[in-house]
Amino acid sequence: MSEVAVQARVEAPPALRFERSNVARLAVAQALAGANSTIVYATGAVIGDMLAPSKALATLPISIFVVGMAACTLPAGAVAQRYGRRATFMIGTGCGVLSGLIGSLAVLYASFGLFCAATFLGGVYAAVVLSFRFAAADCAAPERRPRALSAVMAGGVFAGVIGPQLVTHTMDLWPPHLFAATYLAQGAVAAISLAVLAGVRLPMPIAAGRDRGRPLSVIARQPHFIAAVICGVVSYLLMNFLMTAAPLAMKFCNLSQESANLGLQWHVIAMYGPSFWTGRLITRFGASRVVAAGLLLTAASSAVGLLGIQVGHFWATLILLGVGWNFGFVGASAMVLECHHAEEKARVQSLNDFIVFGTMTFGSFLSGGLLSAYGWDTVLWVSFPPLFLAVAALVLASPRSHRSDAA
């Protein structure tokens, strides 16, 4: 190797120099951290049904989980911009450890309020975890960003196994306190994730770049950005909306908790499994087309759910929903990357996530009430109008080139 080549390699930006190591660690942390969300979704409504003063509040802990995601996105972005993404990762994962410990105590003392506090901290953790995808993009050269983003999301495949299996194998370990050991296990897994993230090497924000860039009001008016946000909102909102209700709906249909756990396992695998190919699909066909495919798959999931209430119907709905979320959300995230300059990324990405998770909160609160009052079919029918809105946003934004939005 020539002296010039060696010098170029040594002087490469730190984020690119440690690209493979960073992406690998972020993918492992994604796999471990995904267990947190899976456990909350698998057990939150069931524990809520046991502890809540009213059956209508059964899904409130999951809604509080989403509130935690929304509440932390802008503060997390501010911390990342001032102290770097790694500091945000440490704080968020610490909240994940606390979430598991407090969740276990809530079950032991039959405290609904304490359990809601645990799911709020779990939501904070989940929101920070979702910023891993943007951190991976920061680690890669521009032409490799979609693949780096999807590679980290692919780590969630293992979360689809870890989370449900933790629930299945720990829920009865501490009789008569159902799920008490599950939340202790979740806290332990978060602690392992904390150790993995400690080795991530990301650049500190450049002081001169903190105040540069266009105003958010200018960036947010781009049709491409508006379409990206709407599609991200709809993809995540409907995934959360249907997944929140599905385990409780299965219980109402006299299907077993084990069936619900397995259905969620395949759902989470379907959410993250396509990430092995999503980045390549985005590179080849464009983010907008991948998002459109995701929206169609989400519509298909609701249509299948309307065909019946057997285990197979629920599983098929959850699997199609997972793949639809992956194409819709990863594609929308890639669209966001096309809408900002380097010095604007922390503010723009935080704004995107705040809008996505903030809007998702309403869907999560609505899900439990609709299910209790009107049944599973109504929950499925309500999913169609947002899908039409997202498709319309894509169509209206399509005449603009992706590059011109960031110019």
Automatic annotation (TrEMBL):
Transmembrane feature ranges? 26-48, 60-80, 87-106, 112-136, 148-167, 179-204, 225-244, 264-283, 290-309, 315-339, 351-373, 379-397
In this protein, which residues make up the domain named Major facilitator superfamily (MFS) profile? 224-407
PROSITE patterns, per this entry? MFS (PS50850)
Q: Which InterPro entries match?
A: MFS, MFS_dom, MFS_trans_sf
Name the Pfam families for this protein.
Answer: MFS_1
Q: Which GO terms describe its molecular function?
A: transmembrane transporter activity
Superkingdom of origin organism:
Bacteria
List keywords of the entry alphabetically: Membrane, Transmembrane, Transmembrane helix
| Protein name as catalogued | MFS transporter
